[in-house]
């Protein structure tokens, strides 16, 4: 048997341990955070205005990429479930189809973004002083959005097989290359021209293209025998329906969240350049607070989907709670570290007194925000893993737009609380969705499939105890 087949057989038989799944994702995100922080620091050397442009543009691009969650998210969960149930051939077909569909949609989206930067800048309410800068960044990075989408699709498929290390290595390399190219293009180092924000956009596209080459090589060898090109033109309608069934609620949920963040960013942009720069810096700092929690949430989704496919329902049920408890402790510790070292951290980015004071104040609100985020992330991803994404979507659509956006508008714009009002809306939204997901997860224990699993396992344990007692 080939080496790839041996590894794949092991994947079918063994459920990946949560730590084995988590640490590569965590390392990848930590390095992305550190390199992203360095990226923001270098952009700040151009101006606070450049930071604001990159911040609002990236929020917009995140919303666009969510379009691909329909494919990537649904495919990832199904790959784990199929491997858990021993259906490796179906897992392979799902992975190939997800990449092919991403490529088709990505081409159209990239063309649209490359040719419509003026329109999108107006929709995002970019301040007039920043519009000229935003056109260049939006058109170049938007035109290359297919690279980001394909990287997302390929790495999601590979992670879902239980191999979280390989995407980590590629991501590390991509971010290091991005930072080096940023340094070269911003400051004119190594004989390169000094291109400023234009150079940052070019750096982003180049680093994503290089990463794509490595991601494809990994993906090609992730399912045993190497995948060949002709497989990408073969579609299985039944499996495609399964992808859509699981993926469309994930897509709607993700799109709703990211678009709501764009709307919130637009509210902040309407407040002026200083609040927009402060919110962008806060985004960078907040990433440190929740990145380990998000890593755990992604890992537990893979693990629970695998356990669910293997019909190990009781183990799947309690995995969510273990991750939740540990995750809350971690995000609280990380937020406290940010508060403790708040002054030296923020002064590294900017010397504007208003921005510094605002960011420091918002860090205290993050102490309330992050546990709610963890509650929502851990249990939301767990529900997605067992195919209950529709419930997560329905609660998210309601809460995000009524509480996060609606309340933020009333408090932040209507009552003129500014960024404080935005954060109050965000905090209440995270806890509302998290609590609803918590009760939904508990409800699954009493459903027939879970109840039967619990009764059978409990009966087996009782039988063993009685046998041991009789022997004694």
TrEMBL record:
Domain of life, source organism: Bacteria
Keywords in alphabetical order: Cell membrane, Membrane, Transmembrane, Transmembrane helix, Transport
Segments crossing the lipid bilayer: 17-38, 50-73, 94-115, 135-154, 166-189, 195-214, 246-268, 288-308, 320-342, 391-414
Protein name: FMN/FAD exporter YeeO
PANTHER family (UniProt xref): MULTIDRUG AND TOXIN EFFLUX PROTEIN MATE FAMILY (PTHR42925), VIRULENCE FACTOR MVIN (PTHR42925:SF1)
Pfam families tied to this protein: MatE (PF01554)
Protein localization: Cell membrane
Name of the coding gene: yeeO_3
InterPro entries to which the protein is assigned, alphabetical: MATE_fam, MdtK-like, YsiQ
Main location: membrane
This protein's record includes keyword Ion transport: no
Membrane topology: Multi-pass membrane protein
Matching CDD domains: MATE_like_8
Biological classification of the source: Bacteria, Bacillati, Bacillota, Bacilli, Bacillales
């Amino acid at each position: 048997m080939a080496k790839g087949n041996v590894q794949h057989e092991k994947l079918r038989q063994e459920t990946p341990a949560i730590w084995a799944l988590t640490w590569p994702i965590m390392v990848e995100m930590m390095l992305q955070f550190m390199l992203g922080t360095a990226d923001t620091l270098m952009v700040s050397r151009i101006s606070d205005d450049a930071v604001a442009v990159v911040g609002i543009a990236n929020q917009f691009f995140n919303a666009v990429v969510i379009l691909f969650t329909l494919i990537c998210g649904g495919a990832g969960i199904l790959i784990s479930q199929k491997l858990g149930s021993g259906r490796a051939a179906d897992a392979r077909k799902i992975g190939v189809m997800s990449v092919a569909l991403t490529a088709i949609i990505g081409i159209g989206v990239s063309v649209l973004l490359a040719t419509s930067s003026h329109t999108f800048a107006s929709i995002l309410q970019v301040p007039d002083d920043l519009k000229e800068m935003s056109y260049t960044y939006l058109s170049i990075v938007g035109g290359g959005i297919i690279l980001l989408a394909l990287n997302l699709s390929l790495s999601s498929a590979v992670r879902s097989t239980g191999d979280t290390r390989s995407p980590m290595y590629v991501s590390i390399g991509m971010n290091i290359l991005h930072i080096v190219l940023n340094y070269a293009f911003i400051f004119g180092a190594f004989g390169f021209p000094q291109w400023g924000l234009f150079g940052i956009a070019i750096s982003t596209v180049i680093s994503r293209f290089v990463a794509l080459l490595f991601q494809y090589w990994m993906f090609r060898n992730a399912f045993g025998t190497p995948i060949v090109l002709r497989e990408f033109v073969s579609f299985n309608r039944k499996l495609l329906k399964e992808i859509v069934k699981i993926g469309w609620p994930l897509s709607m949920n993700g799109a709703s969240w990211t678009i709501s963040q764009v709307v919130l960013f637009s509210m902040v942009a309407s407040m002026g350049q200083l609040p927009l720069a402060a919110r962008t810096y806060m985004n960078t700092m907040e990433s440190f607070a929740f990145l380990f929690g998000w890593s755990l949430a992604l890992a537990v989704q893979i693990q629970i989907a695998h356990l669910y496919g293997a019909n190990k329902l009781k183990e799947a049920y309690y995995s969510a709670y273990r991750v939740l408890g540990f995750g809350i402790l971690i995000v609280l510790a990380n937020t406290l570290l940010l508060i403790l070292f708040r002054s030296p951290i923020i002064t590294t980015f900017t010397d504007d007194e208003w921005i510094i004071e605002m960011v420091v104040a918002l860090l205290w609100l993050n102490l309330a925000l992050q546990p709610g985020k963890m509650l929502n992330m851990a249990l939301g991803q767990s529900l997605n893993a067992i195919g209950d994404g529709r419930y997560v979507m329905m609660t998210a659509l309601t809460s995000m737009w009524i509480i996060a956006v609606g309340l933020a508008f009333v408090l932040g714009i209507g009552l003129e609380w500014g960024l404080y009002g935005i954060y109050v809306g965000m905090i209440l939204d995270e806890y509302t969705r998290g609590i609803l997901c918590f009760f939904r997860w508990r409800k699954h224990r009493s459903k027939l499939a879970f109840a039967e699993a619990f009764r059978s396992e409990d009966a087996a344990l009782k039988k063993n105890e009685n046998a041991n007692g009789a022997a004694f």
